[in-house]
Amino acid sequence: MARTIPTVLLTRPEAQSRALADLLRARAGPQTPIVIAPLMRIESIPAAWDRAAPVLLFTSQQGVAEYRAQGGAGGGQAFCVGDSTARAAEAAGLQATSAGGTVEDLLRLLIAQRPAGPLLHLRGAHARGNLAQRLCDAGLQARECVVYTQQDVAPGDAARALFAAQAPVLAPIYSPRSALRFAREFAPAPSAHLLCMSEFVQQNLEPDAFGRIDVIAQPDGATMVESVLRILLQASQG
């Protein structure tokens, strides 16, 4: 007998969650059970920064989106936390290099390559790693500019109903702050299986508060998608 297929609970901001839902249904089938319940809303912060900066640092795809929305000139160099962010930077007209991992991986890459500055980190209001300051401490010329923020929003009735019914839930969690928000809204949730982008994300979750918590093999969007699809396939096969 096949196991009950878990409902995929997507809690990223609306546009990102809908894009992920479309991708999952394209791969796993239109019947894939998905609930979209954003826990945060992106708000742009118009800021004064050099639109023709020669070397940009991105630790999120949203940073790249704001670069484009706020008039980034393209044509420069970008160092990015992971492959998905690097692809977004390339689409924005930048020559992108991926660190293939976390902020710590990006820091190590920059210190090793020591690109000619100044380096400009376009980031959100809530960010970990203190990247620009640590680069300065390592002797590089770096600064940062906050170009967006994330406002908390309530998840809505559909998500709460899943946990009230103790239905099996599969939830990809992408950032440490998202983990905190998820725990605040839904813990304890013994029916939930959480997939964390990295160990830094996992550290913000109490293991006993959820049915299962795993860290995906590689901290990038493609690996997260494949991890979700693999679990859905396993559930469908029993």
From TrEMBL:
Entry-linked InterPro entries: 4pyrrol_syn_uPrphyn_synt_sf, 4pyrrol_synth_uPrphyn_synth
Q: Which domain of life is it from?
A: Bacteria
Q: Which Pfam families match?
A: HEM4
GO BP annotation list: tetrapyrrole biosynthetic process
The molecular function GO annotations come to: uroporphyrinogen-III synthase activity
Which intervals hold domain Tetrapyrrole biosynthesis uroporphyrinogen III synthase? 35-222
Q: What is this protein called?
A: Tetrapyrrole biosynthesis uroporphyrinogen III synthase domain-containing protein
| Originating species | Brevirhabdus pacifica
